[in-house]
Design goal:
single chain, about 325 residues, alpha/beta, FAD/NAD(P)-binding domain, D-Amino Acid Oxidase, Chain A, domain 2, 2 domains, eight-stranded mixed beta sheet, seven-stranded mixed beta sheet, 8 helices, 17 strands, about 30% helix, binds flavin-adenine dinucleotide
């Protein structure tokens, strides 16, 4: 049996202020623990994978390819996002396909739940910019999306408001720290978790006032789930490739595919201004599933792969339940 580490008076140090560490810090600080969050980068967080993410909160769409545990954690996390950040947009998401991807579209519809099928008029009513572009669409009304580069600072602000301390430019190891240590270093934790690997996701940011979208639009694609996500200030994120490499460059082929996909969603994207090319490495274990590892007072939270924004709040709840009540979730937790 695992020994509980219940020491509510003990300080809690969290390493890594990406989406995993930010949610851990927030829930622990709110529960009254003396939290310090250490981040080796500066406030811009450009070294974090979280900086490059799409920020889709899409447990239903992800169920097409992900294990049921991702849906379970994702559905729980949606409630926590709604509770903690009530202004999070929950406008749903759309899935569309061109005629040649018709079979994939129908398969997607069969493999997923909680969607409505819209005809062309229904799609135009929801997203006027897409009028006449597609014959039909799948609408997942319960899904949400956040803008990572805005929501991370917001979470950091909430941590401070809950009494937590954040130290940027603080490169630490668990041995440097007293009390309970929660290691959320993403790929930086490979010194202790060598089975972690990075899965490259490339993205492009474009700007145009010619198209307005209120929700992410996924386009069926034979290789990757490609999507267009609206951001503030007429920006759109085009994402994302999924490539087994830790090279962080953006290839011409990926750029062509991402830009081409956007152009087929709406030709006005062809006139958009390219603002940024970038890529992040998704931290993944060999089974692509998240893991909370427990070794006495040291806890690791890692392997969030392509679902960090979707599942981080639920992982933080599980860690807190373990520390406070010794509660074990057998699907996610491992004794190291
Ligand atoms: C292109 C792309 C699109 C994506 N889209 C989505 C999406 O739509 N929805 C979704 O849910 N997920 C998405 N993801 C996945 C998501 O981004 C990751 O799952 C998530 O960012 C992982 O978060 P993390 O906190 O574990 O790691 P990170 O964000 O990498 O954070 C780890 C932090 O630890 C810090 N650190 C490392 N070592 C130390 C040290 N010694 N001391 C102090 N700090 C340290 C690092 O600087 C870093 O800031 C996407 C990913 C990519 C690349």
């Amino acid at each position: 049996m695992l020994q509980t580490t219940k020491r509510p008076d003990s300080p809690v140090s969290i390493i890594g202020a990406g989406i995993a560490g930010a949610w851990q810090a927030l829930l622990f600080a709110q529960a009254g623990h003396a939290v310090t969050l250490h981040e080796r980068g500066d406030e811009a967080m450009t070294d974090a994978t979280s900086h490059w993410a799409g920020g889709m909160l899409a447990p239903y769409c992800e169920a097409e390819v992900a294990e049921p545990i991702i849906s379970r954690l994702g559905l729980r996390s949606l409630e926590v996002w709604r509770r903690e950040l009530p202004d999070t947009p929950f406008n749903g998401s759309l899935v569309v396909a061109h005629p040649r991807e018709r079979n994939d579209f129908e398969r997607f519809a069969r493999m997923t739940e909680d969607h409505r099928r819209l005809d062309a008029a229904g799609l135009a009513a929801l997203e006027p910019s897409l009028e006449g572009r597609f014959r039909d669409a799948l609408f997942f009304p319960a899904e949400g999306h956040v803008e990572p580069r805005r929501v991370l600072p917001k979470l950091h602000e909430r941590i401070r408001a809950a009494g937590g301390t954040i130290k940027f430019c603080s490169d630490v190891t668990a041995n440097d720290l007293d009390g309970i240590v929660i290691d959320c270093r993403g790929l930086g934790a490979r010194d202790e978790q060598p089975e972690l690997r990075g899965v490259k996701g490339e993205m492009i940011l474009i700007e145009t006032a010619e198209v307005q979208l209120a929700r992410p639009v996924r386009l069926m694609h034979p290789r990757w789930p490609l999507y267009v996500i609206p951001r503030e200030d007429n920006l759109f994120m085009l994402g994302a490739t999924s490539i087994e490499t830790e090279d962080t460059g953006v290839s011409v082929r990926s750029a062509l595919e991402l830009l081409g996909a956007a152009y087929t969603v709406h030709p006005a994207f062809g006139e958009a201004r390219i603002v940024e090319f970038g890529s992040g490495l998704r931290p993944a274990f060999p089974d692509n599933l998240p893991r909370i590892g427990i070794r006495g007072r040291r806890i690791t939270v890692n392997g969030l792969y392509r679902h960090g924004f979707l599942i981080a709040p639920a992982l933080a709840e599980l860690t807190l339940a373990y520390v406070e009540r010794g509660q074990i979730d057998n699907e996610v937790m491992r004794c190291l």
